[in-house]
Automatic annotation (TrEMBL):
Organism of origin: Phoxinus phoxinus
Position of the signal peptide: 1-19
GO BP term, example: calcium-dependent cell-cell adhesion via plasma membrane cell adhesion molecules
Protein name: Cadherin domain-containing protein
GO terms, molecular function: beta-catenin binding; cadherin binding; calcium ion binding
Keywords for the protein's UniProt record, in alphabetical order: Calcium, Cell adhesion, Cell membrane, Cytoplasm, Glycoprotein, Membrane, Metal-binding, Repeat, Signal, Transmembrane, Transmembrane helix
């Protein structure tokens, strides 16, 4: 306390001296206003040791002022530790200015405090001078030990790790004041289990807080699978503080043991020309961890497989080497052979001997000998050429000799070989069973579906007399040259011309022959000359053409004869059927709606009037004929052109009667309404081709007399035979013609017709009387 007061007193003297010099300068300048300088509060920094033991509170420092002597002022504190967190740390005696500390302070939490103090008028409470401040600096003591992050951890380390830095890093820190002995520390390995190989710590550049583990020697998974290290960090404070971390190194097994064969020698036998067959399984033993790259075997054939007859693979389930024969061996060339097979692991071999890794290249892998004996079997006949190519023109006469094979057999007499056809899909050839000579028995057609890309394939086999018999095959490929034996033809013989869209249709021909016996084609119209007034072809030469209508054509079907020639003038004639119509979407013709007929009130009245007398007649008929037998009466036909015969058979000798068919007056049909009638045309025939004259009738409410032609027939048949109209079509040469018949007429009334048509049948008993 005495030292702080003395220090403040010296600062006050310096300030007074400076103030006197300023007053002298102001007087020399002769200013009009006299400026008086206030006395200043003293600013200072007070040191306080952290975590200082009590008792509390204790005096930290004292504040004073030159106006304090008259007891008219009082002191006040504010700031850190007073009015700001942490609260209740500092206080001041308002009378004496003594500042006290009330509890211990942790520097690592609050390293410095900034405190403000004022002098107030005791009576009014007003500030008598400016607010001044002082700082309380917390002095560090060594109260924190170094800490590892984390304190315990595990690191996987491969067994084949070379000497040097390990992938394991230690990090520590100290919360005491930085760059002071209290926060500076060192690390060391306190203990290691097992002790070998030696593991030490190595500093990283520009830092002492991070260390790396360094290996001297090599690990042996078979001796130790885990290493435990205890590392200490110790600071340089007084007294020194320390902490430890535990590191576990988990050694991961690698390839440190070479695989070894279970046997030193293998002997096997194979049949001559045998192929694609497993012939041997070779087992190995490996001390490394199973099902890892360190133990999985990789086999190879070092010697004896110069021709590529064998291959060896690893069975992933058993780790065995599977030796297979992929290409047959010829007994006449090789009766036995010796293979040398080696084995190693997927992972490179690493060897640690007496704690030191062996330098240099990978050691030579283990190997084993496999003796293979080839057993003789009956060799098949061999054709001199397994594929024979022959050239012929199509349409050649039968009896042409295509091929005579040359065959040899090491194990059989060539005279005992017989020949058979294996493939001859079109049955065009035959084979001599003794000589193998292939001869045509039919004409070869290049356009046949059995010919692919201009070639016809025949397969012949030769069979020897060995036990068992062996077979050799030869493929005969016959290239067929094209001749012009096919005329052009239409790919589509019926087309639709949508007159509401276009006036033409595309005509696409084809020719089964190839160039130069096919396209470009030449097109022309057949038939009579007048046909050219309706149609034309454009272009007349090319791969296709268009049939163009030269005038507006009525809807209907047309037959147009066409002539087509290929490039060599081979001609064909075909008839193209063209449907002329109105299309709806694509080339789909619009369908005509069906006829609908309705009866007016007059027609209904006539029908009722006609049916009433008929009903009365029938009533009388049944009353008179009750309990009487009937006798058949021969039918008499009246007005055959207008009658319909209806026969009724009745059980027990029923009666037979014949109504006379009649038609009503055409004038009485005016009430019949025909709805949705399609367009109709008058057709006529001229000079062997079809032509249609315009003459249309669209939907009407009645019919006019005259010769009307309809494109479709409507037949109305009722028991009263009210009317009939029909349609008759016939074809003459290449054209078509339609005829229609008008409604039949009659002036007879319905009541008269009923009276004339029906005849009464007298009972059989009356006739006998």
């Amino acid at each position: 306390m005495t030292t702080g007061t003395f220090f403040l007193f010296l600062l006050a003297l310096v300030e007074v001296t400076a103030s006197s010099k300023n007053d002298a300068a102001n007087r020399e300048k002769r200013e009009a206003v006299l400026i008086r300088s206030k006395r200043r509060w003293v600013l200072s920094t007070v040191d306080l040791e952290e975590n200082k033991p009590g008792p509390y509170p204790f005096e930290l420092t004292q504040m004073f002022n030159d106006k304090k002597s008259d007891n008219s002022v009082k002191f006040r504190l504010k700031g850190d530790g007073v009015t700001r967190e942490p609260l209740g740390l500092f206080s001041i005696d308002e009378n004496t200015g003594i500042v006290s500390v009330h509890k211990a302070i942790d520097r690592e939490v609050n390293p410095i405090f900034h405190v403000d103090f004022d002098v107030l008028d005791r009576k009014t409470g007003k500030e008598m001078d400016k607010t001044l401040s002082f700082d309380v600096a917390i002095k560090d003591v060594n109260d924190n030990r170094p800490e590892f992050t984390p304190e315990t951890f595990r690191v996987p380390v491969p067994e084949n790790t070379p000497e040097g830095i390990l992938q394991a890093t230690l990090t520590a820190h100290d919360n005491d004041q930085p760059n002071s002995p209290n926060s500076q520390f060192t690390m060391r390995v306190v203990s290691q289990e097992p002790a070998l190989p030696k593991i030490s710590l190595k500093d990283l550049p520009d830092t002492t807080k991070i260390k790396q583990l360094a290996l001297s020697g090599c690990f042996d998974y078979d001796k130790a699978k885990t290493y435990k290290l205890l590392v200490e960090a110790k600071d340089q404070g007084t007294p020194a503080m320390s902490s430890t971390a535990t590191i576990f190194l988990d050694i991961k097994d690698t390839n440190t043991h070479a695989p070894e064969f279970n046997s030193n020698q293998y002997n096997i036998e194979v049949m001559e020309m045998e192929s694609n067959k497993e012939i041997l399984r070779i087992g190995v033993t490996d001390k490394d961890t199973p099902n890892t790259p360190a133990s999985r075997a990789v086999f190879s054939i070092l010697k004896g497989n110069e021709d590529g007859n064998y291959k060896i693979e690893t069975d992933p389930k058993t780790n065995e080497g599977v030796l297979s024969l992929i290409k047959g061996k010829d007994f006449e060339k090789t009766a036995s052979i010796e293979l040398e097979i080696a084995v190693e692991n997927e992972e490179k071999l690493f060897q640690c001997v007496n704690g030191k890794a062996l330098p240099g290249s990978t050691p030579k892998p283990n190997s084993v000998k496999v003796a293979v004996k080839v057993n003789d079997v009956n060799d098949p006949p061999e054709f001199k050429k397994t594929t024979e190519v022959i050239y012929r023109n199509e349409n050649g006469p039968p009896g042409d000799v295509l091929f005579v094979p040359v065959v040899k057999d090491e194990d059989s007499n060539s005279k005992n070989i017989r020949y058979e056809l294996v493939q001859d899909p079109a049955k065009w050839v035959s084979v001599d069973p003794k000589t193998g000579k292939i001869t045509t028995v039919q004409t070869l057609d290049r356009e046949s579906p059995f010919v692919k890309n201009g070639t016809y394939t025949v397969i012949v086999q030769a069979i020897d007399d060995g036990k068992p018999p062996a077979t050799g095959t030869c493929t005969v490929v016959v290239f067929l040259g094209d001749v012009n034996d096919n005329a052009p033809y239409l790919t589509s013989k019926s087309l639709v011309m949508c007159v509401n869209k276009v006036d033409r249709v595309n005509v696409i021909p084809a020719d089964l022959d190839g160039p130069p016996f096919s396209k470009p084609f030449t097109f022309s119209l057949g038939g009579v000359k007048d046909l050219r007034k309706l149609w034309k072809l454009e272009p007349t030469t090319g791969a296709s053409t268009s049939l163009i209508s030269l005038k507006s054509l009525p809807y209907g079907n047309y037959s147009v004869p066409l002539k087509m020639q290929d490039q060599q003038a081979l001609q064909s004639e075909e008839v193209l059927k063209v449907v002329v119509c109105e299309c709806i979407g694509g080339t789909v013709c619009r369908e005509n709606g069906p006829f609908s007929v309705s009866l007016g009130p007059a027609a209904i009245g006539l029908m009722c009037a006609g049916l009433l007398p008929l009903a009365l007649l029938l009533l009388c008929f049944f009353c008179n004929c009750k309990d009487k037998t009937f006798q058949h009466i021969p039918l008499q036909l009246y007005d055959e052109g207008h009658q319909t015969l209806v026969k009724y058979n009745d059980e027990g000798g029923g009666s037979l009667f014949k109504p006379e068919t009649s038609t009503s007056n055409f004038g009485q049909m005016k009430s019949i309404i025909v709805a949705s009638a399609p367009p109709v045309y008058l057709d006529s025939t001229t000079d062997g081709f079809m032509r249609t004259d315009n003459g249309t009738l669209r939907g009407s409410a009645g019919y006019t007399s005259g010769s009307l032609s309809y494109g479709r027939s409507v037949i109305m048949q009722r028991n009263q035979s009210m009317g009939r109209w029909g349609r008759e079509s016939y074809r003459s040469g290449g054209s078509q013609m339609s005829r229609s018949y008008s409604l039949a007429r009659t002036e007879r009334k319905l009541a008269d017709q009923i009276e004339k048509q029906w005849r009464y049948v007298e009972p059989l008993n009356s006739s006998q009387k």
